[in-house]
Each structure stands twice: as structure tokens, then as C-alpha cells.
Design brief:
CATH class of one domain: Mainly Alpha
CATH architecture of one domain: Orthogonal Bundle
Radius of gyration: 22 Å
Shape: globular
Number of helices: 14
Distance between the termini: 28 Å
CATH topology of one domain: Poly(a)-polymerase, middle domain
Strand content: 5-15%
Helix content: 25-40%
Order of helices and strands: HHHHHEEHEEEHHHHHHEEHH
């Protein structure tokens, strides 16, 4: 179904009423062969004889870690990191000469229930079938052509994803030495369809089936992971070959930030924040049921980054919030371009669904055939106009779950907040980082100025330098 997500969406958890200490070892027997990668077969062979090592680390006795011989400055298994661009034969990319095909004809190619397979080529060790062809919308005006050009140049490539997956694989082996039953999953923009060539990697470390207290237990687990990284850095052992600057960030959802020296990718690693696994596949479904969604989201993310309003750590909007804002706008048009997947397919996006089933949910969801024929340029102008002049920031909450703007709740999560964006699974506010009025006013002003400039000039360069953005990527 999702060729690059075999390791992400299906940790083989048993039903909650079953109590197994080694629940990760209970692999489902009815998984199709194409869903099992080589790495998964390796991961299934966990070594549960490391209990003493785990206890030693939990007690703070890091000297109990066994020594490992230094390796060359590559990944431990010696696997080369792919650096070339996506192959030109990838059928998910369309030549410019094919863009004269009529919009309606191209949209009709979304006929297969497995159309999502064609979105991203498979990892090299995953026995998946060839990607199914996907299309991009036709761009007949200058602004739409600029949006498509930026998207095609900046979207995440196969080699970018492979680098992140290779690092994830190696880190999982290291972490399983201290938490033998754990699994490490790639989540977020790397897999949800909205990644760019410069996107960081988000990792979710699942240590047990039950929820983890983020203020206490998660911080403790992450402190052990950080100590593992730092200890091996000091001893110049295996992890030192490809991990640098591990730093524990004590946020509401604590993370360990680090950099992979081989691929030069920055990573954020959290513990048991499993809502990230669920929303990864929800967003991935939105990304591919309508072919105007991904180009529009990418341009908005690039715009927000250029305008310095895309950094939750500095009190502005996270990329996740920006994606939800675009989806919400497309849902609320007089002729919607997107539905509410959670309302139309509640059984497929049940927030209580077992995690090992999450990746399967979207495979039966057909493409959404909207009657709205707006161009990418028209949609981009409309996006800025909506948030500059129509959306009521002080009274409304963005909800893609309901596909409409809802009255603000009165709970503490929402009270006195400048921007309210509902997380579609756990109901929290994804824009809670915007807590200063000055930053909020800057965000609103950027929407207003960008709408006015784009409305008048119909040139993307008036709000975002296209060529410089492509060169930077």
C-alpha cells in the first residue's frame, strides 16, 4: 500500500486485552508478502537476552555497555548512502511536454484503488511492485506554472527518503540493545507526502503498548538514549560514526535532537507519541486523493519558511499546522476540493485502531473527484485571502476532522490562544506555540500582504523568490 512505510505503520501490537511481554514478536500471519521488507524480517528476530544490559542502563551504569570496534565513517553495515537524484524513469514524475493533456483526462487516471503506491518509489530492500503512475495538474497560467515548478524541484526525492530510512535502521539496532522490545518509526513529513528535500527527519520510539507519561517517563527514556549516544561518542564507537550533537529538549513532547553526519539530516526523536503515526497516514491519504494538494502545501511551507513564520520553537507556526491550514481551506471552499476523511471513512481512521492496522486503512479509499476546477494559482491566491479576510481567528477553530471552522472550545487548551488548530486524532491545539500577540500579528500581516501582492501581480516571485528557493531547496 505505502511502499516506504512498511516499518512505520504496522508495529505488530496484539489486542489490548492480551498481555504479552514480547508483544513486538507476535507478527501477524496474514500480512501480504509485499508488506514485509528485509529489515522487518531482521527486526522480527529480536534478542531478548539483553535484559541485564537494559537493567544496567536503567540504573545509570553505562559502563555495562559492551565495547564495539570502531568502524569507518559510514553506517555500521557499510551500506552506501544514496546521493543521486530520483531516477528519471520514475513514472510518478511527468515531463513538461505532457502537461498539455487536458486536466479532466489526467484526473481520470486515478482509477485504481491502489493509486497511492505510485507516490514514492520503494526502498531498495523492499520487495514492492513497480509504482503506479500518478499525475500532476495542468498549469496553463504563469502562477500555476511557478507553483508546479517549485513543487517538482523541491519535493522529497527517493534518495532523500532512503537516507533517513538507513539512519533509522541503524539507530533501531543501537536502541534495541538497551530496549530490546522497542521499535523506531519514521513519521511526519518524510512519509506523509508533504516532505521537501530539506525536511528534517521525525522518529517515534515505541517502547511499549501503553501510553507513556511525557513529562516523566518519556524524558527518562530519552535521557537514557541521549546518554547512550553521548557515551558512544566519547568512546568513538559505532554510533559516533554517524550521530552528532545529541541534545535532550524538554518540551511538552520531549525529544532528542541530533544530526546524522553521513546524510547531514537533522532528526527529532520522541517516545511513544503514537498520534504521529496515525496522523502521518491520515495526511498521506489527503496528499494523494487530489493532485493539487501536494504542490499547494509545498509552496505554502516554503513561503512560511521564507517569511520566518514557520518555526514553533520561536513562537510561530509548525509545518504540521500549516498543512492542516491548507487542508482546511480546501475543505471549506464553496465547491470543496477535499472531504473530511474521518467523517466519510470513520472505520478507516478510528483513533483507537490498533497501530499495526493503521497503514492499511487508506488502501480502500478512492480518489476524491471534485467538481472544483480551480487552478493552482487561483487556489494559492484564495488560500491567502481566506486567512487574511474570511477566517475569524478570535472565534473559530480549524478542524479538518469536521471539514469546517468550529466555534472555539472553552477548555484550557484553547482559552486565550491566538490560533486554534485541532489535532485530528487527540484534539489538542497544534498551534499552541503561537502564544505572543506580536508573533500572531506578524503571521496575520504576512497573510494579508501576500494575498494583496499575489492578487495584483499573479507572480509567485512577489511573495517568494522562486529561483533562489529552488537553488536552496
Amino acid at each position: 500500500m505505502f511502499p516506504n512505510s512498511s516499518n512505520l505503520g504496522r508495529p505488530p501490537f496484539p489486542p489490548k486485552y492480551q498481555q504479552h511481554n514480547n508483544f513486538f514478536n507476535e507478527l501477524p500471519l496474514n500480512i501480504p508478502p509485499t508488506l514485509l521488507s528485509h529489515q522487518q524480517l531482521i527486526d522480527a528476530q529480536f534478542n531478548f537476552q539483553n535484559a541485564a544490559l537494559s537493567r544496567a542502563l536503567l540504573s545509570g551504569n553505562l559502563s555495562a555497555l559492551p565495547a564495539v570496534s570502531p568502524q569507518p565513517s559510514t553506517y555500521r553495515n557499510g551500506s552506501p548512502v544514496p546521493t543521486s537524484a530520483a531516477p528519471t524513469s520514475f513514472r510518478g514524475r511527468k515531463r513538461l511536454s505532457e502537461q498539455n493533456v487536458s486536466y479532466d483526462v489526467k484526473r481520470q487516471r486515478f482509477h485504481s484503488p491502489h493509486y497511492l503506491i505510485g507516490c514514492v518509489p520503494p526502498l531498495r530492500d523492499a520487495p514492492f511492485p513497480d509504482p503506479i503512475e500518478t499525475t500532476l495538474p495542468v498549469a496553463k497560467d504563469k502562477l500555476s506554472q511557478q507553483v508546479l515548478e517549485l513543487f517538482q524541484a523541491c519535493q522529497q526525492q527517493t534518495c532523500d527518503l532512503n537516507k533517513k530510512e538507513l539512519c533509522r535502521t541503524e539507530l533501531q539496532k543501537e536502541i534495541q540493545r538497551i530496549f530490546p522490545q522497542s521499535r523506531l518509526f519514521l513519521v511526519g513529513s518524510s512519509l506523509n507526502g508533504f516532505g521537501t528535500r530539506s525536511s528534517d527527519g521525525d522518529l517515534c520510539l515505541v517502547v511499549k503498548e501503553e501510553p507513556v507519561n511525557q513529562k516523566t517517563e518519556a524524558r527518562h527514556i530519552l535521557s537514557l538514549v541521549q546518554k547512550l549516544f553521548c557515551t558512544k561518542l566519547c568512546k568513538s564507537q559505532t554510533t559516533a560514526n554517524y550521530i552528532e550533537r545529541p541534545q535532550l529538549i524538554r518540551a511538552k513532547v520531549p525529544i532528542v535532537k541530533f544530526r546524522d553526519k553521513v546524510s547531514c539530516v537533522e532528526f527529532d526523536l520522541n517516545v511513544n507519541n503514537v498520534v504521529g503515526i496515525r496522523n502521518t497516514f491520515l495526511l498521506r491519504t489527503y496528499a494523494y486523493i487530489e493532485n493539487r494538494v501536494r504542490p499547494l502545501v509545498l509552496v505554502v511551507k516554503k513561503w512560511a519558511s521564507f517569511r520566518d513564520i514557520n518555526d514553533a520553537s520561536r513562537g510561530t507556526l509548525s509545518s504540521y499546522s500549516l498543512v492542516l491550514m491548507v487542508l482546511h481551506y480546501l475543505q471549506t471552499l464553496p465547491e470543496p476540493i477535499l472531504p473530511s476523511l474521518q467523517k466519510n471513512y470513520p472505520e478507516s481512521f478510528d483513533p483507537t485502531m490498533q497501530l499495526h492496522l493503521v497503514h492499511q486503512a487508506p488502501c480502500t479509499i478512492p480518489p476524491y473527484l471534485s467538481k472544483n476546477g480551480s487552478t493552482l494559482g487561483d487556489l494559492l491566491v484564495g488560500f491567502f485571502k481566506y486567512y487574511a479576510t474570511e477566517f475569524n481567528w478570535s472565534r473559530q477553530m480549524i478542524s479538518i476532522r469536521e471539514a469546517k471552522a468550529l466555534p472555539r472550545p472553552d477548555g484550557i487548551e484553547w482559552r486565550n490562544k491566538f490560533i486554534c488548530i485541532e489535532e485530528p486524532f487527540d484534539g489538542t491545539n497544534t498551534a499552541r506555540a503561537v502564544h505572543e500577540k506580536q508573533k500572531f500579528d506578524i503571521i496575520k500581516d504576512e497573510f494579508l500582504k501576500s494575498w494583496q501582492r499575489l492578487r495584483d501581480k499573479r507572480d509567485l516571485n512577489c511573495i517568494l523568490p522562486v529561483r533562489a528557493t529552488i537553488q536552496k531547496r
